[in-house]
Design a protein that fits this description.
single chain; 292 residues; Diaminopimelate Epimerase, Chain A, domain 1; 2 domains; 18-stranded mixed beta sheet; 7 helices; 18 strands
Length: 292
C-alpha cells in the first residue's frame, strides 16, 4: 500500500490548536479522485487538500480541495495552510516571496512575507460575483440567527468558490451571542442555493475592523472556525454597500473566538469592485505519513 507525506495545519493563526485546521496530502499525483474523496471523508475536517504537480507552466504546484462530500474550486484556509505545508516540506522555494497556485478556480498569485514562524501567506482570491440581494428575507435571517439583522445594508450573496450570504448585525457583542437555528439555516441554504450564512459586525476600535461568524450546516459544517473565502468575498460586499470607509482598504477580521479558535484574517482590497487578497499565518500540528 502506498504512503504519502501528510500534514495537518492550523491556518490563520501562529498558535497550535487555534485557527482552522486543514489536512494536506503531499505528492498526491498517484491518487485518483475517489481516493481523495474517501480521505477527505475520513479526516472529517471541513477541507482536505492534495498537492500535485502543476499541469501548466507558471504555477508552482496544483492543489485540489475536498470537503467530506465534494470538491471545491477554491477555499481560503486550505490555500494558506497548504502553501505553508509545501514551503515547510521544501517542495517549492518562494523566490522573491512570490508563488502561483493552480487550482480549479484558476492560477492564483501567492505572496509570502517573512520566514518560518514569522511567515504570513497571502492569496489573491478569485473575484467574488454578486448572486443576489434578499432584503425581503431579513425576518427569516433574524429568526435563523437568533438576533435582529440590520436593514441598513441588505443581506446579499457573493460567490468566489463557495456562495456566502452576508448579513450585517449592529455590533460585535451581538455576533458573539448569536443563537443560530441550524435547521433554519440549512433550509434557507437550500432555498437560496447558498453555501451558508456569514454574519458580521463592523468594529470601530481595537486590532480588528470586522468580527464574523460563518455557518454552513447544509454542508455539515455547523460553524466554520476561520473562513478565508468568506472574508475575501466580504470585501466585495463592503465595497458594494459603501462600507470600506469604515474598515479601510486594509483591515483585519476576527473569527473563531466563540469556538476557542481565535483566528485572524488580513484583508487587502485591490480595486473598487472589492477584489481582495487575504492572508494569515499557519502552523503545523501533525507531520507524518498516510497509507492508503
Amino acid at each position: 500500500m502506498p504512503s504519502y507525506q501528510f500534514k495537518q495545519v492550523d491556518a490563520f493563526t501562529s498558535n497550535p490548536l487555534f485557527g482552522n485546521p486543514v489536512a494536506v496530502v503531499l505528492g498526491a499525483d498517484g491518487m485518483d479522485e475517489e481516493q481523495m474523496q474517501r480521505i477527505a471523508a475520513w479526516t472529517n475536517l471541513s477541507e482536505t487538500t492534495f498537492v500535485l504537480e502543476p499541469t501548466v507552466g507558471q504555477p508552482a504546484y496544483r492543489l485540489r480541495i475536498f470537503t467530506p462530500e465534494h470538491e471545491l474550486p477554491f477555499a481560503g484556509h486550505p490555500t494558506i495552510g497548504s502553501c505553508h505545508a509545501v514551503l515547510e516540506a521544501g517542495i517549492v522555494d518562494a523566490a522573491g516571496g512570490r508563488l502561483v497556485q493552480e487550482c480549479e478556480a484558476g492560477a492564483l498569485p501567492l505572496r509570502i512575507d517573512g520566514d518560518e514562524a514569522q511567515r504570513t501567506i497571502f492569496v489573491e482570491a478569485p473575484p467574488a460575483v454578486a448572486k443576489g440581494e434578499f432584503p425581503e428575507r431579513i425576518g427569516a435571517f433574524s429568526v435563523a440567527l437568533g438576533c435582529q439583522v440590520t436593514g441598513s445594508s441588505p443581506p446579499a450573496a457573493f460567490q468566489n468558490g463557495p456562495n456566502w450570504l452576508f448579513v450585517r448585525v449592529e455590533d460585535q457583542d451581538t455576533v458573539k451571542t448569536l443563537k443560530p437555528d441550524m435547521q433554519a439555516i440549512t433550509r434557507l441554504s437550500h432555498e437560496l442555493s447558498i453555501s451558508g450564512i456569514a454574519a458580521f459586525a463592523l468594529v470601530d476600535e481595537g486590532e480588528f475592523a470586522v468580527h464574523i461568524r460563518c455557518f454552513a450546516p447544509a454542508f455539515k459544517i455547523a460553524e466554520d472556525p476561520v473562513t478565508g473565502s468568506a472574508n475575501a468575498a466580504l470585501a466585495a460586499y463592503l465595497a458594494r454597500h459603501g462600507l470600506l470607509e469604515r474598515t479601510g482598504r486594509e483591515f483585519v477580521a476576527s473569527q473563531g473566538t466563540e469556538l476557542g479558535r481565535d483566528g485572524r484574517v488580513h484583508v487587502r482590497v485591490l480595486d473598487d469592485s472589492g477584489r481582495a487578497e487575504i492572508g494569515g499565518q499557519a502552523v503545523t500540528v501533525v507531520d507524518g505519513e498516510i497509507t492508503v
